[in-house]
Structures are given as structure tokens and as C-alpha cells.
Amino acid sequence: MKLSIASGKGGTGKTLVATSLAASLHSQRGRGITIADCDVEEPNAYLFFPDRTLLEEESCQVVVPVVDEEKCTHCGKCSKVCNYHALAVLPQTVLIFPQLCHGCGACSIVCPEKAISESSRSIGEIFHARSEGMDIVWAKLALGEARTTPLIKAVKDRAQSDTVIVDCPPGTSCSLVESVRGSDFCLLVTEPTPFGLYDLDIALRVLDKMGIPQAVLVNKSGVGDRKLYQYLMERKIPLLMEIPLDRRIAEIYSRGEIFVLQMPEWKERFVELAKRIEEMIS
Amino acid sequence: MKQVAIVSGKGGTGKTSIIASLAALAQGKAVFADCDVDAPDLHLLLQPKILERREFYGIKRAFIDEEKCIQCGICQDACRFDAIRDFQVETSLCEGCGVCHLVCPEGAVEMRDVQAGEAYISQTRFGPMVHAELYPGEEASGMLVAMVREMARDLAAEKKLNLILIDASPGIGCPVIASLTGVDLALVVAEPTVTGEHDLLRLLDVAGHFGIRTTVCINKYDLNIKAAEQIEELCRSRGVEIIGRLPYHTSVIDAMVRAQTVVEIGGPVAEAIEEMWKDLEGYI
Questions:
Q1: Quick check: A4 contacting B, CB < 8 Å?
Q2: ipTM of the predicted structure?
Q3: Which of A217, B34, B66, B263 is the most exposed place for a label (fewest CB within 10 A)?
């Protein structure tokens, strides 16, 4: 099962849920669980496993064009064809802006002088660690880099086990789409506030477009208002769990610890949650 | 004209609630720009009246004319994004590069502009606002952020206002970079948690990478005082000033539910934001 944990709004508790679910399932099954942290801008899940052993670290390479200045006639065709403005042709030279390049290869296709070849560069690091038999895969986007999707793909490629729990980035744009692509199910974590509801609605529309089955987990329940619950009822979206706003949970989380390990009654609830999701998938 | 961006790295630290209060305090003196275009929430507090709408076209997308297509498969082989399968374009994978259009021997691939969102010029009870909506799952959020910022600059010039307050999205990637470039000050909202500290550091590094002046506000300060002090120490060692310390208080969510700003309903968070605003005015 590949299960993604997403939200739309940031800070609703995606990582709290992903790490709690993984830890609960791992203590029940003992093997076959991987957390794939696809928030490559601000990866956090690994912080909750301080005893992890790093198995592998690898850089994520993307393609960039290299111009052979001896062959280049500065005709400007490469710059014209590039939809990302990653090349600028000046009378004497060609400037390349690697951060803007998507590595599509259009420039080398159109170059009449065959002056453009391809090289690679790193946009971040991918990490694979193990903590008491559970696998954790995450990536760190290099500072100043804009494109996240190649790193997200790399994290998903590495996460191979029976159960993969994907911790998604906030937002509802291409990073979310890439993170949830290939998931069997998406659990959306939200909070019963106007912000939580508004962003949940956008995230649900992304999932509908992609045809991914979904359910909701309400975190910090007890705050805010009832509008979220009305919305879920009207849309017939299953509400699978509520985690109350509890200062104890917030404090445990703030120390970088997994609350279900200190409040074991919750461990069973998370195991039950996974079971219900598995039933909904099949 | 000064531009201040409210950023965070980690999501849910309180950027939008804080900027809405700053907007209330800056009443009549600033333009507000919501640059969190794929999960915009500032409008929920500022309740803008939309005066003007503009279409946003992001990247072009490929479309294959089935009548012209001879199913040679050249485009499928050339596409680096695996966006063409069975001679059809999977739009959500298409990055709009146009390689398929270039290599098609039959001229069967057309690159079309696709509307990917909308941007708005609005009026709020505190002053003019520019905001936007990226359609669900679309790409090019950075381009829409750039559009919002340009509209905000034009609007500020037109209204003769010399401050733009920018609400950014969480993270450190494309939309955040687009929100940060060229600002005069980045106000980073941090929270005293292990993850909050980690994300703050990454964001300070990015701001440093672009040479942007930064100051930090620690929200929910008393959630974990030890962690908050650690963040203060960390900022001190980097020469970054702490501009605000806001307590953890229910008034923030109460205000949200009432579609108001924290300073309008009062309380300890409101007082701390008012203090912070005085310092911020000094900065600006």
C-alpha cells in the first residue's frame, strides 16, 4: 500500500500523522514500513528518528546544457526555443541559468551547429536511513534551487516496501501532484478552522482530478468552528480520525518525539486507521 | 517603496494571521500582496472586495491532433517528462517545453496557452490588496507570484503608498524564491519546535544566499520555552535580530473564525504584534 498524507494548508500535522502512523504500524508488524518524506524543501520526518543509521546519501542530478563556444554562431535559436528563459544569447557568448532549466533538451535539438551538449548538476541530496528496521527516505533541495519535482520522484523511487507512507509538502501545486502521484490512497490532514477548510477544499480538487481516493483526519479538534464538519458531511468525505488539540501532544511534538510512543492508546487507533484505509482501497 | 515579505519555511507557523494584523496596523499606508497562491488564506481575514480580475497563463501545454498523428512515437521518445503515453499527452506531467512539437514530423502537436489561475486587485477595510488563485494542481506558481508582486508594485505606485506587505507560501523553493527576490526585509515567523528550528535554519540560509535582510518573530513562544530560547541563541549567533515574541493563545483562532484580525479582537497576542509593528515601522 502506498498511502500519502497531504493537507493543502501547512502546519496542520502531516508529519505528526505520517510519523505516528509509521511508528504504530512498525511496532505492530516489525518490518515492511517506509516513510517517504516528499517535502523536499523542508523535510522533517527524519528528525523524529534520532537513532537512525544513514544507509546511503546520493546527489540528485539533473541535465543542463553546455555550449561549445567554438561551434556556436550566436544565432539565438536555442534561446528562442527555451520556454523557461534558461539561455540568453549575447553577441559574444551564451549565458545559461541552470536554476531555470528543466532539462527538456529543446535547445540541443534546435541548434543548427550541434554546439549544445548536455552535462549534469546536482539540485539536492537524497538520503536513505533505517531506524530499528523501519526505512526513512528524504531529500534536501539545495539552497536557491526552485525545482522540486526531480527530487520528489527520486524519493518515491527509493521508497520500496510493502507499506509506503508518503509525507507530502504543503500547498496544492505541482509538488503536491508529484508527491501523491502513484498513491493508492490519500489521507488529508486538516484543522477545523477557516484556513484549514479553505485549503482542504483545493487539495481535494487536486485529488479528484487525479482520481485518488481520499479521506480526512481532523487534527487539533476542539478549536475553530463546525463548518469543516458540515463540509465533510455534505461532500460525503469520510472522516477517519480526530486528534484533539492537546497541549501534551503539542509539547511532545515540539521536542521532536512521536506522541503515540508516549500515549500508547493512540498506537492502536493508528493501527486501526491503517486497517480501515486498507479496506477502503480493496 | 519598501517591500516586506512574511516567510516561514515550515507551514502553519502563523504567517497569515500575523500579516493580517500588520495590515490592520498599517491601515491606509500599505498594499497587501498574498503570494501564497496555491493555498491563499489572507482573503479569509481581510474579506477583500474584488475590483479587477486578470487571467494568468502559466506554461504552455502540448496537444496532439489525433487526425494528423501517425503514431510514429517520436514525440514519446523525445519527451523527458514521460508525459506522452499511447500518443496522448498526460497534461499533469507536461512541463510545456515544446520538444514534442519540435520533433513531430507531421506537425500534429500544438502548444497552447492554458489558463492556470486568476489574479485580483481588491479593496479591503485596511487598504488595497492583490491576491491570486492558482488552479488546483497547476505548475508555475512562481510565475503567478511574480505577477502578483508586479501588480502590487503598480498599485502601490498608483495609490502613492510606500509599503508592500507580502504573505509568502511555506517552503524554500520556487514560489518562496519568487516572493523573496528584491524585498527589503524578510520577516521570518518561527515556532519553538524541533521541526520549526530546522526549517527556520534552512530559510535563513536561503535568505542569506540571496543577500536579504532578515528578522525573526517567534510565534507560540511559550509552547516550548527551552526550544524558543535555543532559537534566540541561534539567531544571535547568526546576527539575526528577534523582532517579536508572540504567546500561544486562542485569540488567534477566535479571530480567524470571526474573519477578523488578531489586533481587532485584542488580547496578549494582539499586544505583542502591536509592539512588533512599532519596531517594524522603525526598520522601514
A1: no
A2: 0.94
A3: B66
